[in-house]
Design a protein that fits this description.
Elements: H1 5-18, E1 23-30, E2 36-50, E3 52-62, E4 72-75, E5 81-83, H2 98-101, H3 110-123, E6 127-129, H4 132-150, H5 155-162, E7 171-175, H6 179-191, E8 196-200, H7 212-217, E9 222-225, E10 236-239, H8 250-262, H9 265-271, E11 276-279, H10 284-295, E12 302-304, H11 308-321, H12 325-328, E13 331-334, E14 342-345, H13 354-376, H14 382-397, E15 402-409, E16 421-429, E17 432-436, H15 443-461
Parallel strand pairs: 7-8, 7-10, 8-9, 10-11, 11-12
Antiparallel strand pairs: 1-2, 2-3, 3-4, 5-6, 13-14, 15-16, 16-17
Helix pairs in contact: 6-14, 8-10, 11-13
Organism: Urocynchramus pylzowi
Pfam family, one: Ldh_1_C
Catalytic activity: (S)-lactate + NAD(+) = pyruvate + NADH + H(+)
């Protein structure tokens, strides 16, 4: 059942050579949503020097998407040990480390993880010795603690999820707690399109990710977590993260984002195997392609925010500023985000003769050019993109079958033969893209789309996936 069995076996061999005290077994792991899966786990002790030398007992669960997803790690305290809650350990003994949050194959390995575990535990010892009375109480709790360390069964979540129909529970996870991530959470919550919104804050430190204010003011139905398992059973997963590395070239910046996604997409895909991935990271066309490849999801369930915001603005301008309501009905902005986006129509009125048709085309083109000029002065701020994301999530979660201009696999459209994602009008529903809406045939539009597809494909060919 392990997708990358050979890679996993090689890693475990390395662990066995370096830390021979570890033992391996297959056991049933219980996730927060109460689903279960047989997973490989290995238990043992890691040597830590904290004044004296200590052997810290740990248990690592290897997900079936390893090595592309990080393991789930717990302390395994004995009856005379207590868990010292700190920066890297919670009250249940769950271990959180920067190495896990930034997991990216092939750079990240189990040996590297254990080394960081040792280093962090030497800064802050995760366990302490109990007195005899405390040890007695600890013994009574060990059976429950064992359940937690063997899985993540949560009594509170069990009572909540068990009381409502799982099939009707609309959950959205937003990955990334920067300005865009916060904006998406607030917009989705404000539109009341989801029963629950989870914000995955993958930044290091308690307040670096910008999620502290959300925690302080307790927005209803919003959960903040650093744990991928909190995203389990999401209907929509929104990707807003962008790497903040010191890349020098545009290609380096994108490659840095790809490396970041390698540690995120397999994990969220594992926990929400039927979700629609909605990509808002930059550049959206490339990162949607990367998400599709890393998730192995069908193309219909991986979409980018694309030109949805520009299209809605475009149609609004045509209707309210230029009083061209008839044109606005079938108007879209398509292609790639940025300067190369292009206006288009999904239908047209058939004129009585060729002369009238040409006149109508020229008139429409003038109006479209005026609207596009106004659009150039409208930046895409975080809050405006957040509103666009909420609009898309609403169509998906409520199965509205509404048409949006979103980044979708364009191969086969407009004579495009490469696997690239471009913004095209699509009908969205519960399963993502239900159908692509046919565009009016316009040689100039097709030429621009083909040009965008060519440049995006050339860029993708230079990336290391």
């Amino acid at each position: 059942q392990y997708k990358f069995r050979d890679l996993t076996i090689e890693e475990l061999k390395d662990v066995s050579k370096t830390y021979p005290n570890f033992t391996f077994s297959m056991n049933t792991y219980t996730f927060k949503d109460r689903s279960q899966k047989d997973l490989l786990n290995f238990s043992g002790t890691v040597p830590v020097k904290y004044g004296n030398s200590y052997n810290i007992p740990v248990c690592l669960w290897i997900l079936d998407s390893h090595p592309f997803a990080p393991p789930i790690c717990f302390l395994k305290p004995t009856a005379n040990m207590g868990v010292a809650v700190g920066r890297h350990v919670d009250a249940r003994g769950r271990i959180y480390l920067p190495y896990l949050q930034n997991w990216s194959h092939p750079k990240s390995t189990l040996i590297g993880l254990i080394k960081e575990m040792i280093a962090k535990f030497e800064e802050e010892l995760p366990l302490y010795s109990l007195s005899s009375s405390d040890a007695a109480r600890q013994s009574e709790l060990l059976s429950y603690i064992a359940k937690i360390t063997e899985g993540e069964t949560d009594m509170k979540s069990r009572s909540k999820t068990g009381s409502r129909n799982e099939g009707c529970f609309n959950k959205v996870t937003v990955v990334g707690a920067g300005d865009l991530g916060i904006a998406c959470v607030l917009a989705v919550a404000a539109k009341d399109v989801a029963d629950k919104v989870v914000l995955l804050d993958l930044s290091e430190g308690a307040a670096k990710g910008g999620s502290m204010d959300l925690e302080i003011f307790a927005v209803p139905n919003v959960e903040i977590s650093k744990d991928f398992s909190a995203s389990a059973d999401s209907k929509v997963v929104v990707l807003t993260v962008n790497s903040l590395g010191n890349a020098q070239t545009y290609l380096d910046v994108i490659q840095s984002n790809v490396d970041l996604f390698r540690g995120i997409i397999p994990a969220v895909s594992h926990y929400s195997q039927n979700a629609v991935l909605l990509v808002a990271s930059h550049p959206v066309e490339v990162m949607t392609f990367v998400s599709w490849k890393l998730s192995s999801f069908p193309k219909s369930r991986v979409i980018g925010v694309g030109a949805n915001l520009d299209s809605e603005r475009f149609r609004y301008l045509l209707t309210n500023l230029l009083k061209a309501e008839v044109l606005a009905k079938d108007a879209w902005v398509i292609g790639e985000q940025g300067e190369d986006k292009v206006p288009s129509w999904t239908s047209c009125n058939v004129a009585a003769n060729q002369t009238e048709a040409m006149a109508a085309h020229n008139s429409r083109e003038k109006v479209a050019n005026r609207a596009m000029e106004v659009l150039k002065g409208k930046g895409q701020r975080s809050w405006s993109v957040g509103l666009s994301v909420a609009d898309l999530a609403d169509s998906i979660l409520k199965d509205k079958r509404k048409v949006h201009s979103v980044s979708t696999l364009a191969k086969g459209c407009c004579n495009i033969n490469s696997e690239v994602f471009l913004s095209l009008p699509c009908i969205l529903g519960a399963s993502g893209v239900i159908e692509m809406v046919r565009l009016e045939e316009d040689p100039l539009v097709q030429e621009k789309l083909q040009s965008s597809a060519g440049s995006i494909h050339d860029l993708q060919q230079q990336l290391k996936l």
